[in-house]
Design goal:
The protein has about 375 residues and is of the alpha+beta class. The protein is built from nine helices and twelve strands. The longest helix has about 35 residues. The structure holds dinuclear copper ion.
């Protein structure tokens, strides 16, 4: 038995060791790319080394004593027993208490620092956790998008998060989170009242639970333009693992251009085109019950706003690349691709799918 377990244990240890060497790790909290993420990293490192020191001391002493006082051949009976040592006991009570006190000072200051609303020029974004996708609402810019959060570099972004389907009567909360808000009545939203957790390891100040009925905040900031990966960190149902998102950090100029683009209404497709047929399918079919497209009569809020669908690189919890092929497969049977999806299989014909894909792909 023991002999059989040895190679398995060895392999497991090797796998663990090799996993630590991974280079392509887009969600690496040990690779902070912004001041808030760096602040928690700078707290983690010294606390980690203190813990390593204690581990080595305690385990070292344990191993040393086990070896030194092991049973030896010819030794009879049990060795003399010691009961109680007041000095030693006082020491091992006071020393850890002192270590905790020392660690507590930077820990508490960092916690309060990161929880504070950043001062100065701040971008505000409301984040709604749905089952299973993220809604990003820019109140000042009047933009609503999904799965892809755009931010300018070098500027703190203050997120106000809540779980969709929430009711909360506090002040300064996104309207979607207030009782009777647009989400309030939708059956999808009621079913979606579960806890999520928002995390962008490289640029956020740790993780933040996204709770129905309660509003929470999180600050993130990126130093350099780039795409940062995030995911839901709280088991929230069947497609928890399919609840990914990206943060696209851009120069202020690029960000402003993106904002202007997103503020436009959707472009109407040319008469007689396949996209125009798709638009009719969209507005006369089931899509309009859950989705909004600014500039058309579609204005529902249960699902993602699709006004600039094509401008996003991914959809449906960022599990799929935004290509005509992926989109066609999605429309064919959404729950087959994302288990538990509130978007049902509407048994669309191939003709309908082709037209809808042409329309959605025209929404730049
Ligand atoms: Cu949302 Cu896990």
């Amino acid at each position: 038995m023991r002999r059989k377990a040895q190679p398995i244990l060895g392999l497991a240890a090797l796998a663990l060791l090799l996993a630590a060497c991974i280079k392509n790790s887009p969600q690496d909290a040990l690779n902070p790319q912004g001041p808030t993420a760096r602040q928690s990293y700078d707290l983690f490192v010294p606390v980690f080394w203190i813990a390593v020191g204690i581990f080595v001391l305690v385990e070292g002493a344990l191993v040393f004593l086990v070896i030194k006082y092991r049973h030896r051949k010819g030794r009879k009976g049990i060795p003399p027993q010691t009961h109680g040592n007041t000095r030693l006991e006082i020491a091992w009570t006071i020393v850890p208490a002192l270590i905790f006190a020392v660690v507590a000072v930077p820990t508490v200051t960092t916690i309060f620092d990161l929880a504070r609303r950043p001062s100065g020029d701040v971008l505000e974004v409301n984040v709604l956790g749905h089952q299973w996708w993220w809604e990003f609402d820019y109140p000042e810019q009047g933009i609503n998008t999904a799965n892809e959060l755009h931010i300018p570099v070098g500027k703190p972004v203050y997120l106000t998060l809540c779980g969709a389907g929430a009711g909360y009567d506090g002040s300064g909360v996104p309207s979607e989170c207030q009782p009777g808000g647009p989400e309030g009545e939708s059956p999808a939203a009621v079913g979606a009242a579960v806890i999520h957790s928002f995390w962008v390891p490289e640029i956020s100040a740790g993780t933040q639970d996204v709770i129905p009925g309660r509003v929470s905040n999180l600050t993130l900031q990126a130093d350099e333009p780039g795409v940062y990966f995030g995911s839901c960190k709280e088991l929230c149902g069947l497609s928890h693992a399919n609840m990914r998102f990206t943060v696209v950090a851009q120069t202020q100029e690029d960000f402003d251009a993106w904002v202007r683009g997103q503020q436009q209404d959707a472009a109407a497709p040319a008469d007689g085109s396949l996209a125009a047929t798709g638009m009719r399918e969209f507005l006369n079919g089931q899509c309009i019950a859950c989705h909004a497209i600014q500039g058309t009569e579609a204005a529902a809020v249960g699902g993602p706003d699709l006004t600039h669908f094509r401008s996003r690189d991914c959809f449906a919890g960022c599990m799929f690349e935004n290509t005509p092929e992926e989109l066609a497969q999605w429309l064919e049977n959404p729950p087959a691709r994302k288990p538990g999806s509130f978007m049902k299989d509407y048994e669309l014909s191939q003709t309908q799918i082709d037209a809808l894909v042409a329309y959605l792909m025209s929404l730049e």
